[in-house]
Amino acid sequence: MDTFEGPLDLLLYLIRKNKLNICDIPIVEVLEQYMEQIDAAREQNMDVSSEFLEMAARLVYIKTVYLLPKHEEADALRAELSGQLLEYEECKRVASLIGEELSMDSFAREPAAVEPDYTYRRPLNGLKLLQAYYDAAGRHVAPPPTQASFSALVSHRIVSVASQIIYVLRRLWKDRNISYRALFVHKKDRSEIVATFLAVLELVKGKRVRIEGETDNPTVELLKAGERRCKAKH
Question: Which residues contact 212 (CB under 8 A, 6 or more apart)?
Fold first, then answer.
């Protein structure tokens, strides 16, 4: 039944196959062949749509009406069926002609000018936009610094200038004078060396010590109270 487009298509096939007159359809003969097609379809487990069954019932009704003494109604029903078959046949012929002469490309038209719409309508996601920016800029998002990266800074010892002032004064109170370089002998940390140097400058500025000698290793001498006052007057 899948090969027929509908009950009219099947009836037209049977009429043309048996070379019957479409305007004088032998209902009994057509009905028998029509039911054979339906029974064959059912034996092959094919679905028979309701419209095929309705046409079978219609043919049976026409056959029944022909059993009555008067055949006017039966003739009218058969004429109506013949008319539908003729119309269907004509429509099928015209559709075939159109299909041969026309195709989907026959109705092509020139492309219409469409104003481009640049409105951005996608949902915005800040992180994705940031990632897209970095990708466009040829850079990647740098991962956050690890805890180990701070270890060198956090573990770095801070040496105060005040602590080194005390250190220098303690050395001088004991020996009164000391080699300038001797103050830095055990100073290996850069912060400690800088703080010691600044401590010496602060002591010189405050007239607590004096640096003697023009060699590469001058002597640092602790000033006495009188010397400091004398220096202060000058």
Answer: 177, 218, 219, 221
